[in-house]
Write a sequence for this structure.
C-alpha cells in the first residue's frame, strides 16, 4: 500500500497528464464519429451566442454579394413560375384539390455564423436550433447548391457537417441521365469534391452537371452540386471523377434548411426487416 | 493570468482563425500561454489550465479535442526543455524569468515547443497516413507564422513598459 502511494506521489504529474490526454483523445475520436459527437461542438449556447455576435458585425462586408445572390435566385424562381403558368393555361380547366397534394419538404431560412473549409473534417454553425424545429440529418442548401446536413442541435443553434468533411457521403447523379454514385471529399481542395462508384457504362463528359439523387432521406432530388472537371481514365475500381462545386464554400451567408416530412415513415419501412 | 487566458482565447478564435493566409496557413498564438505561464506556480493547475484553453479553442473550431491534446503535450514537456536549454534545476524554478534569459536560448525553447505543438496538431487534424506531405508543409509554414507573431508580440509588449 505504501509502495502504491509512493508510486502515485512520484508520478502524479505524469498520471494527471495522462488522464487529461485520455480525455482529449476520447473527445477527438467521438467528434469524428457522426452519431456520438455530443459534447464538444460549436452549437452550444455559449459559443453559438458569441459566434452570432461576431457574425452580426462581419456580415456587413458581404451585404453586396448577398443581395446579388438573392436577386439572382428571385430571377430564377420568377422564370420558373412563369413557365408553370403558361403550361396550366393550355388546359381547359384545372382542378386543384388541396387534399390530394402532399407536401414532402419544408424550407426554413437561417444564417451561417461560423464557417470552416480548410480542415479535413469541416463543420459549420447556423443560428437555428431545436426551438425552430431543426433536428438531426436535415439538408442544408443555398441558392447555388448543397452545403451539408445538420448533425448536432442545441436550443438555438445547430452544427452542420459540411460536404467538405471526409466522413460525408451523399447520393448524387448525373443531371442528363439517371446514373448515380456516391459523393465524397478527399480533403484536398475546398472547391473540388469526388464522385465515385458510377457505373462504367455511364456517359461522362467534362462539364456535365451533377445533382443530388434523391435516394436518401436527407436531400430532395435535383439539388445542384457542381460540374465534372476531371475524369480519371484508367482501371481503378471505383471510377472516380472530380466535381467542381457551384458553391464557393469559403463565402457562405444565408442558407435553407430542408426538412423531410416523410423521413420517419421511410426510415421505419427500411429498418423493418433488420 | 485570467486576462491572459481569455484574451489569448478570443484573439485566437475570433481573429487569427479567420486569417487563412494563402488559404490554409494560420498562426496558433494561443500556445504562448505555455511560454508565459510562470514556472514557479504549481504544476497541476498549470496543466489543467492549458488543457482547458485547448478545449475552449476546440469548442470554437469544432475539432473534438485536438487542440487540447497538443497544447497539453507541450505543457507537460515544457519542464524538460527548460532543463535542457536554460540548464536549470528544480531549485531555480522559483526565480526563473523568461525575459531575463538571452534571446538565443528563448528562441530555441520557443521554436522547439511550437514545432512540436504544430506537428501533433496537424497530424491529428489530418487523421490518416495520406497527405503526410501536407502535414509537414502545414507544420512548417504555420510554425513560421506563429513564431513571427509571437516574437513581434513580445517585442512590442516589452518595449512599451
Amino acid at each position: 500500500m505504501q509502495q502504491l502511494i509512493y508510486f502515485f506521489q512520484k508520478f502524479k504529474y505524469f498520471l494527471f497528464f495522462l488522464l487529461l490526454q485520455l480525455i482529449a483523445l476520447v473527445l477527438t475520436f467521438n467528434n469524428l464519429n457522426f452519431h456520438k459527437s455530443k459534447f464538444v461542438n460549436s452549437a452550444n449556447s455559449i459559443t453559438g451566442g458569441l459566434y452570432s455576435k461576431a457574425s452580426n458585425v462581419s456580415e456587413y462586408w458581404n451585404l453586396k454579394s448577398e443581395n446579388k445572390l438573392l436577386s439572382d435566385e428571385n430571377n430564377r424562381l420568377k422564370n420558373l413560375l412563369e413557365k408553370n403558368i403558361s403550361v396550366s393555361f393550355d388546359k381547359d380547366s384545372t382542378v386543384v384539390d388541396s387534399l390530394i397534394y402532399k407536401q414532402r419538404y419544408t424550407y426554413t431560412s437561417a444564417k451561417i455564423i461560423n464557417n470552416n473549409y480548410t480542415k479535413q473534417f469541416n463543420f459549420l454553425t447556423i443560428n437555428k436550433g431545436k426551438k425552430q424545429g431543426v433536428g438531426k440529418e436535415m439538408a442544408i442548401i443555398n441558392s447555388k447548391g448543397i452545403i451539408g446536413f445538420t448533425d448536432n442541435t442545441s436550443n438555438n443553434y445547430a452544427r452542420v457537417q459540411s460536404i467538405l468533411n471526409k466522413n460525408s457521403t451523399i447520393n448524387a447523379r448525373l443531371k442528363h441521365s439517371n446514373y448515380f454514385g456516391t459523393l465524397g471529399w478527399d480533403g484536398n481542395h475546398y472547391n473540388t469534391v469526388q464522385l465515385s462508384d458510377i457505373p462504367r457504362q455511364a456517359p461522362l463528359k467534362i462539364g456535365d452537371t451533377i445533382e443530388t439523387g434523391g435516394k436518401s432521406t436527407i436531400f430532395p432530388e435535383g439539388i445542384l452540386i457542381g460540374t465534372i472537371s476531371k475524369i480519371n481514365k484508367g482501371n481503378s475500381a471505383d471510377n472516380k471523377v472530380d466535381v467542381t462545386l457551384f458553391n464557393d464554400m469559403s463565402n457562405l451567408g444565408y442558407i435553407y434548411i430542408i426538412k423531410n416530412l416523410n423521413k420517419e415513415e421511410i426510415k421505419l419501412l427500411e429498418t423493418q426487416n433488420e | 493570468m485570467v486576462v491572459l487566458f481569455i484574451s489569448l482565447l478570443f484573439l485566437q478564435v475570433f481573429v487569427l482563425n479567420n486569417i487563412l493566409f494563402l488559404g490554409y496557413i494560420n498562426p496558433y498564438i494561443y500556445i504562448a500561454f505555455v511560454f508565459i505561464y510562470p514556472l514557479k506556480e504549481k504544476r497541476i493547475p498549470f496543466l489543467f489550465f492549458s488543457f482547458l484553453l485547448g478545449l475552449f479553442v476546440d469548442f470554437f473550431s469544432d475539432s473534438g479535442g485536438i487542440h487540447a491534446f497538443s497544447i497539453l503535450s507541450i505543457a507537460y514537456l515544457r519542464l524538460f526543455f527548460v532543463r535542457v536549454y536554460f540548464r536549470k534545476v528544480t531549485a531555480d524554478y522559483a526565480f526563473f524569468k523568461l525575459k531575463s534569459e538571452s534571446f538565443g536560448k528563448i528562441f530555441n525553447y520557443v521554436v522547439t515547443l511550437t514545432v512540436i505543438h504544430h506537428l501533433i496538431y496537424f497530424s491529428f487534424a489530418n487523421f490518416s497516413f495520406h497527405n503526410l506531405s501536407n502535414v509537414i508543409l502545414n507544420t512548417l509554414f504555420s510554425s513560421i507564422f506563429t513564431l513571427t507573431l509571437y516574437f513581434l508580440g513580445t517585442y512590442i509588449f516589452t518595449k512599451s513598459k
Residues 2-160 of chain B form one domain. Chain B has a mean pLDDT of 84.
